[in-house]
């Protein structure tokens, strides 16, 4: 039981990664693809959060804690904060491309977009 | 490539990934037993060195400030990219009286205090980032969501009047530049770029932790205006047509 | 508390699958918002209040707003194109 708990959170991150990838692969609509990409990106939060987590550790805010309290790792949390904002900007930019593709090609199915073929 | 072949390739790759990932995850430090030294070092230093009680924001806006500067410019350039891609069509929207369709007075009355509270809460959050959870990013998005209430409760044109104001673009540039300027002022004090050289103040007060508070406010300004511009750009075509056809 | 965290993680795994399996776009945006809220709860449960706050504002305001606006814009454009075709 203990060994399951020790690896399960990391496996969830991998599972979410595969879910997002599956959504992208089977997508038939570009907006659906963007949402799947957003899900894919959340897997990094789950992995980072679980790597920095410490059982019975407090949140890294010392406003009402004595300075010697054991806290969870604040560095991965700073990374996640950056990651979340970058996710929003990436989605915004990709959605603008989707709108443009819709205007120019008249279709939103990734398979019908001839100009995206190599 | 047909859908079927693509899915088959995906399953093969997913199985391979799952095997390797499982082996990696098994050998990671057990969950809940964080052992890296950096987190402990920085959490024991930030209150003494920077007088900031929120360690995450102390890292984001000071220890890792250069990285966040680059990230802010990612936001800036992506908003620029969206605005260039979705330039509103050069159409003369003939404003008609019927475009003034708005919600019932009850919704409008409820929206007014909500608007004020959202702005106030956003400002509070972006200026108290160094003390409690929150900071420029969160506060900025909260401020940017307030004009959407105007769009919901009032008509398009009230929303347009707020978000297409030239001041919004100017403030976005000011927010992005402000961060860099704060970094450059460190040169005047004779220390490297983005050093926290301002007097640090008393821990736990609003005006403490030196440049962290100032940078947080700048980021709040930049994020708020960036998301305003984003929402306006996405709505622009609908707004232009609604003014014309309704 | 550990059990609660594990349950939350399993729920997130299920919700992620649900989001990508939803094919109707408007329901998918709602599913994504729900998934974002679950992530925010997870961040709170794992002692990351800063991240939880930014996940709430991004996941509940910014992402659904942008995607919904794009969907509205496409629908609007398709309608105007159809109207133009009828008018001819």
UniProtKB/TrEMBL annotation, chain A:
InterPro entries named in the record: CPA3_antiporter_subunitC (IPR050601), NUOK/Mnh_C1-like (IPR039428)
Where would you find this protein in the cell?
Cell membrane
Q: Where is it found, in Gene Ontology cellular component terms?
A: plasma membrane
Q: What is its main location?
A: membrane
Keywords on this record? Cell membrane, Membrane, Transmembrane, Transmembrane helix
Q: Where are the transmembrane segments?
A: 7-25, 31-53, 74-99
Record's bilayer topology term: Multi-pass membrane protein
A Pfam family that the UniProt record links to this protein: Oxidored_q2
UniProt keyword annotation of Cell membrane present: yes
Q: Which PANTHER family match?
A: ANTIPORTER SUBUNIT MNHC2-RELATED (PTHR34583:SF2)
UniProt family annotation:
Belongs to the CPA3 antiporters (TC 2.A.63) subunit C family.
- Full protein name: Multicomponent Na+:H+ antiporter subunit C
What species does this protein belong to?
A: Acidipila rosea
UniProtKB/TrEMBL annotation, chain B:
List each copy of the Na+/H+ antiporter MnhB subunit-related protein domain by range. Answer: 109-228
* Database matches in Pfam families: MnhB (PF04039)
Task: List UniProt keywords, sorted A-Z.
Answer: Cell membrane, Membrane, Transmembrane, Transmembrane helix
Where is this protein localized, as stated in its record?
Answer: Cell membrane
Q: How does it sit in the membrane?
A: Multi-pass membrane protein
Q: One GO cellular component term, please give it.
A: plasma membrane
The primary location reported for this protein is: membrane
Q: Is the Transmembrane keyword given for this protein?
A: yes
UniProt cross-references to InterPro entries, sorted A to Z: CPA3_antiporter_subunitB, MnhB
Has UniProt tagged this entry with the keyword Glycoprotein? Answer: no
Question: Which family does the similarity line name?
Answer: Belongs to the CPA3 antiporters (TC 2.A.63) subunit B family.
Q: Which PANTHER family match?
A: NA(+)/H(+) ANTIPORTER SUBUNIT B, NA(+)_H(+) ANTIPORTER SUBUNIT B
User: What protein name is recorded for this chain?
Assistant: Multisubunit sodium/proton antiporter MrpB subunit
Origin species, per record, is: Acidipila rosea
Automatic annotation (TrEMBL), chain C:
Q: Does the keyword Transmembrane apply?
A: yes
Q: Which InterPro entries match?
A: MrpA_C/MbhD, Nuo/plastoQ_OxRdtase_6_NuoJ
The MrpA C-terminal/MbhD domain sits at 11-75
* Topology with respect to the bilayer: Multi-pass membrane protein
Span-the-membrane segments of this chain are: 38-71
Any Pfam family matching the protein? MbhD
Query: Which UniProt key words apply to this protein?
Result: Cell membrane, Membrane, Transmembrane, Transmembrane helix
Q: What is this protein called?
A: Uncharacterized protein DUF4040
Which GO cellular component does the record give, naming just one? plasma membrane
Answer whether the UniProt record assigns the keyword Transmembrane to this protein. Answer: yes
Organism of derivation: Acidipila rosea
Where found in the cell? Cell membrane
């Amino acid at each position: 039981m203990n060994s399951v708990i020790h690896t399960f959170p990391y496996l969830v991150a991998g599972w979410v990664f595969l879910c997002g990838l599956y959504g992208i692969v089977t997508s038939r609509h570009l907006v659906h693809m963007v949402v799947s990409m957003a899900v894919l990106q959340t897997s990094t939060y789950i992995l980072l959060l679980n790597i920095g987590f410490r059982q019975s550790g407090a949140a890294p805010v010392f406003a009402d804690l004595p300075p010697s309290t054991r806290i969870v790792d604040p560095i991965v949390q700073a990374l996640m904060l950056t990651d979340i904002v970058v996710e929003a900007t990436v989605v915004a930019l990709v959605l603008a491309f989707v709108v443009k593709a819709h205007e120019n090609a008249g279709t939103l199915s990734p398979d019908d977009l001839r100009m995206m073929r190599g | 490539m047909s859908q079927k072949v693509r899915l088959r390739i995906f399953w093969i790759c997913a199985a391979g990934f799952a095997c390797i990932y499982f082996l990696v995850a098994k050998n990671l430090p057990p969950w809940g037993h964080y052992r890296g030294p950096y987190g402990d070092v920085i959490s024991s230093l930030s209150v003494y060195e920077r007088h900031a009680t929120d360690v995450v924001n102390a890292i984001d806006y000071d220890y890792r400030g250069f990285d966040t500067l680059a990230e802010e410019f990612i936001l800036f350039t992506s908003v620029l990219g969206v605005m260039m891609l979705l330039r509103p069509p050069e159409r003369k929207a003939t404003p008609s009286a019927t475009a003034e369709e708005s919600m019932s007075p009850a919704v409008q009355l409820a929206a007014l205090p909500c608007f004020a509270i959202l702005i106030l809460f956003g400002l509070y959050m972006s200026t108290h980032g160094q003390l409690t959870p929150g900071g420029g990013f969160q506060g900025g998005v909260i401020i940017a969501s307030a004009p959407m209430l105007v769009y919901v409760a009032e008509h398009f044109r009230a929303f347009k009047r707020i978000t297409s104001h030239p001041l919004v673009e100017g403030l976005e540039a000011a927010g992005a530049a402000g961060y860099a300027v704060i970094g450059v002022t460190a040169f005047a004090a004779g220390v490297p770029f983005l050093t926290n050289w301002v007097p640090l103040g008393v821990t736990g007060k609003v005006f403490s932790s030196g440049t962290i508070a100032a940078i947080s406010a700048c980021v709040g300004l930049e994020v708020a205006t960036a998301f305003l511009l984003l929402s306006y750009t996405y709505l622009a075509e609908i707004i232009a047509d609604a003014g014309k056809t309704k | 508390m550990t059990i609660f965290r594990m349950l939350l993680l399993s729920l997130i795994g299920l919700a992620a699958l649900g989001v990508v399996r939803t094919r109707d776009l408007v329901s998918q945006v709602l599913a994504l918002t729900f998934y974002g809220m679950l992530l925010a709860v997870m961040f709170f449960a794992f002692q990351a209040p800063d991240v939880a706050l930014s996940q709430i504002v991004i996941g509940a305001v910014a992402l659904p707003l942008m995607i919904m606006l794009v969907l509205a814009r496409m629908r609007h454009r398709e309608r105007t194109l159809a109207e133009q075709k009828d008018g001819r």
